[in-house]
C-alpha cells in the first residue's frame, strides 16, 4: 500500500471515530500541514465544519458552540504558532469545564528541533490546561484500530469527570493530500468503538438524612447558586427551597432568575443588599449550601469570609473538586445536584414554608429591587441599559455577557422574569478576550443570541465577526461604550490621575461603525433611551449581525451605582430603627 492510501485510511478512520463518539462540529483554521485533517472533515457529512482563519477566534467560537450545545467540539489547525493561538480559549475551557478536542497538525519527528520552518515544540504545549495529551503515531499500515482508539479516548477524556479540553498532536509527512476514491475507505475491516458511559456520583441514605435534618431544623439557612449551565437545576432548587423555607441567593449565571419556575424564594438583589457593612454584620446565616461556582458578587465573598467561624458551609458539585476561593472552612459534597435536591425534597414533610428569616430576605430584596429599577435619568447608563435589554429580548433566547462591568451590571439589574433566557459568560478565567467569538459560537447553534459587552472587549475580538458575516448568523451585540475600561473607575487606581487614563482608562476612540460595516452588519449608535429601545426592537427583526452602540460616561457610571447602593442601605437602616 502506498503512503497516500495509508494516510487516507488513517485520517478517515480517525475522523469517522470522532463522529461515532459524538463529535458533531469541527472548527478548522486553514494551513498546509493540517491538510489531511481539514479535507477529511470537509468530506465527511456527519460532522459540520466551520472555517475561521484566525486561530484565537476559531478556538473561542468552538468554545461557544460547545457551551451552548453541551457537547464536545473539535478544533483543527496547522503546525507552529497557529497552535499557540488556541491557548487563551483552552485555558477558559479548562476552568469553565467545556469539552474540546484540540487537533494540532505537526511536523514529523525527523523535522522537529532541527530548525525546520513553521515548527515549534508542540509536545504537551498546553501543560495542565488539557485533561489528556497524546502525540499520535505517524500514519502506517496496520494502525486503524489504534487510531480509532485514540479518537474515542480523546472524546471520552474530554467529557468524563470534569469536562474540559484534550490535545491530540498529529505528526504528518508529505504528501498531504488524501485520496477519497479508495474503496471502503471509511470503515474497512475495523469495528467502531462504542462511546463510554459515565455515571454521576450520589450521596448515601445516611448522608441524605443529615441534610434532611439540617433543612428541617429552625436554623437560618441559605441556598446559594453560582454560575452553572444546567437549566434543569432551577426546578429542583426552587422546590427544595420552598419546602424548607430557605432563601436562594441566585447569581445571574445560575439559570434561576429567568423561566416559569417558582421564584418566591429567589433573592436576586443580594449583591446590592450586601454592599452595606451594616447588612454584612447583621445578617448571620447558620449554614449555606452552595451549588455551582463562586458567585460573581464580591460583597457576597466578603460577607461569608466575615462570618467564617459561625457558618456551616457546604458546596455541592457534580465532580470531585475544590472550587472554593473564599478560603472558609467547607465541606464538599460530590453528587449530582439535581439528584441531591430530589432526595432531600422527598424526605422533607412540610411544604411551602414561610418563616421570619425568609420573609426578611424577601422584604430586603423587594426594597433593593425598587431602588435599582427606580426611574432613570435622561442620560444613558449601564444599569438601565440591562433593564431595557431584558424587556426587549426574545423569549427562549440567550444573553451572553462580557466580563468586567457588564457581568456586574447584569448581576445588579437582571431581575426575575418569566421569559426563558439563558445567561452565559466566560467566567472560567474571566478574561475580555474572545467574548465576541464565543457569543457567535453560541449563535451558531440557532438560538437567538444577544451579546452585552464593553467597548474594549468588542475591540479586542473584532475578528470574531467574520463567521457571523460568512454564515449570516443572527446575533444582536450591545456595546456599552464609555471609551475605556469602566471597571477600573471603581478601584484605587482611579485616585491616581497622572497614570489612570493611559494605563487603566485606556480610551481607544475607535469608530466601531466602520468595523461593523466591514463585516456586513447593521450599526446603530444611540444617545437616548427611546433610540435605544427602538434600536433593540429593530435589531431583533433583522437577520445577521446587528450592533447597538450605547454611548455612556465612565464617571457618571460610578456615581449612578453608588447612589443606588446608598439609597438601599439607608432604607434598610430606617426599617431596622422602626
- What is the top-level CATH class of the largest domain? Alpha Beta
CATH superfamily of the largest domain: Thiamin diphosphate (ThDP)-binding fold, Pyr/PP domains
Overall pLDDT confidence: 93
Which residues form runs of ≥5 with pLDDT under 50? none
Count the domains.
Answer: 3
Name the beta content range.
Answer: 15-25%
Spatial order of strands in the largest sheet: 2-1-3-4-6-5
**Second CATH tier, the architecture of the largest domain:** 3-Layer(aba) Sandwich
Helical residues, percent: 40-55%
Secondary structure: number of strands: 18
The computed structural class is alpha/beta
Cα-to-Cα separation, first versus last residue: 90 Å
Report the major sheet.
6 strands, parallel
Query: How many helices in DSSP terms?
Result: 22
Describe it.
- 41% of the residues lie in helices and 16% in strands.
- By secondary structure, the protein is α/β, with parallel strands linked by helices.
- The strands form three sheets. Strands 2-1-3-4-6-5 form a six-stranded parallel β-sheet, with helices on both faces.
- Helix 14 (382-392) runs parallel beside helix 21.
- Pathway: Quinol/quinone metabolism; 1,4-dihydroxy-2-naphthoate biosynthesis; 1,4-dihydroxy-2-naphthoate from chorismate: step 2/7; Quinol/quinone metabolism; menaquinone biosynthesis.
- Residues 12-125 form the Thiamine pyrophosphate enzyme N-terminal TPP-binding domain.
- It comes from Halobacillus naozhouensis.
Amino acid at each position: 500500500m502506498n503512503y497516500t492510501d495509508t494516510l487516507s485510511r488513517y485520517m478517515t478512520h480517525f475522523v469517522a471515530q470522532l463522529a461515532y463518539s459524538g463529535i458533531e462540529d469541527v472548527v478548522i483554521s486553514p494551513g498546509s500541514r493540517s491538510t489531511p485533517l481539514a479535507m477529511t472533515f470537509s468530506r465527511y457529512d456527519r460532522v459540520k465544519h466551520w472555517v475561521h482563519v484566525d486561530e484565537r477566534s476559531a478556538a473561542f467560537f468552538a468554545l461557544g458552540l460547545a457551551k451552548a450545545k453541551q457537547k464536545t467540539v473539535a478544533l483543527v489547525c496547522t503546525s507552529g504558532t497557529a497552535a499557540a493561538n488556541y491557548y487563551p480559549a483552552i485555558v477558559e475551557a479548562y476552568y469553565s469545564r467545556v469539552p474540546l478536542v484540540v487537533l494540532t497538525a505537526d511536523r514529523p519527528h525527523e523535522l522537529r528541533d532541527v530548525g525546520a520552518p513553521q515548527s515549534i515544540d508542540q509536545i504537551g504545549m498546553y501543560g495542565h490546561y488539557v485533561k489528556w495529551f497524546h502525540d499520535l503515531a505517524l500514519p502506517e499500515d496496520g494502525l486503524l484500530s489504534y487510531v480509532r482508539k485514540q479518537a474515542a479516548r480523546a472524546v471520552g477524556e474530554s467529557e468524563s469527570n470534569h469536562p474540559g479540553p484534550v490535545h491530540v498532536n498529529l505528526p504528518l509527512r508529505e504528501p498531504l493530500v488524501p485520496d477519497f476514491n479508495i474503496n471502503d475507505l471509511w470503515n474497512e475491516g475495523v469495528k467502531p468503538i462504542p462511546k463510554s458511559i459515565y455515571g454521576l456520583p450520589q450521596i448515601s441514605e445516611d448522608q441524605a438524612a443529615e441534610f434532611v435534618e439540617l433543612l428541617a431544623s429552625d436554623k437560618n439557612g441559605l441556598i446559594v447558586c453560582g454560575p452553572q449551565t444546567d437549566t434543569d437545576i432551577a426546578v429542583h432548587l426552587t422546590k427544595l427551597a420552598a419546602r424548607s423555607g430557605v432563601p436562594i441567593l441566585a447569581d445571574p449565571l445560575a439559570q434561576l432568575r429567568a423561566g416559569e419556575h417558582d421564584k418566591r424564594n429567589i433573592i436576586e438583589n443580594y449583591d446590592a443588599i450586601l454592599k452595606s457593612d451594616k447588612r454584612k454584620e447583621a445578617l448571620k446565616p447558620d449554614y449555606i449550601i452552595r451549588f455551582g461556582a463562586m458567585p460573581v458578587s464580591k460583597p457576597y465573598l466578603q460577607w461569608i469570609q466575615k462570618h467564617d467561624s459561625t457558618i456551616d458551609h457546604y458546596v455541592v458539585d457534580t465532580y470531585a473538586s475544590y472550587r472554593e476561593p473564599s478560603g472558609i472552612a467547607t465541606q464538599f459534597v460530590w453528587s449530582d445536584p439535581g439528584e441531591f435536591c430530589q432526595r432531600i425534597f422527598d424526605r422533607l414533610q412540610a411544604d411551602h414554608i414561610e418563616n421570619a428569616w425568609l420573609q426578611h430576605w424577601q422584604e430586603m430584596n423587594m426594597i433593593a429591587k425598587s431602588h435599582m429599577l427606580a426611574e432613570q435619568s435622561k442620560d444613558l447608563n449601564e444599569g438601565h441599559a440591562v433593564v431595557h435589554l431584558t424587556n426587549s429580548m426574545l423569549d427562549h433566547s440567550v444573553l451572553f455577557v462580557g466580563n468586567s462591568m457588564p457581568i456586574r451590571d447584569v448581576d445588579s439589574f437582571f431581575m426575575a422574569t418569566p421569559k426563558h433566557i439563558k445567561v452565559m459568560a466566560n467566567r472560567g478565567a474571566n478574561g475580555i478576550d474572545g467574548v465576541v467569538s464565543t457569543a457567535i459560537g453560541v449563535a451558531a447553534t440557532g438560538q437567538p443570541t444577544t451579546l452585552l459587552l464593553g467597548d474594549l472587549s468588542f475591540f479586542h475580538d473584532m475578528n470574531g465577526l467574520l463567521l457571523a458575516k460568512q454564515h449570516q448568523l443572527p446575533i444582536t451585540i450591545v456595546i456599552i461604550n464609555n471609551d475605556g475600561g469602566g471597571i477600573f473607575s471603581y478601584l484605587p487606581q482611579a485616585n491616581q490621575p497622572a497614570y489612570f487614563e493611559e494605563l487603566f482608562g485606556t480610551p481607544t476612540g475607535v469608530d466601531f461603525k466602520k468595523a461593523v460595516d466591514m463585516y456586513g452588519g447593521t450599526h446603530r449608535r444611540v444617545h437616548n433611551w427611546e433610540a435605544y429601545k427602538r434600536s433593540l426592537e429593530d435589531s431583533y427583526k433583522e437577520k445577521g449581525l446587528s450592533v447597538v452602540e450605547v454611548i455612556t460616561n465612565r464617571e457618571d457610571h460610578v456615581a449612578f451605582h453608588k447612589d443606588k447602593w446608598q439609597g438601599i442601605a439607608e432604607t434598610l437602616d430606617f426599617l431596622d430603627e422602626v
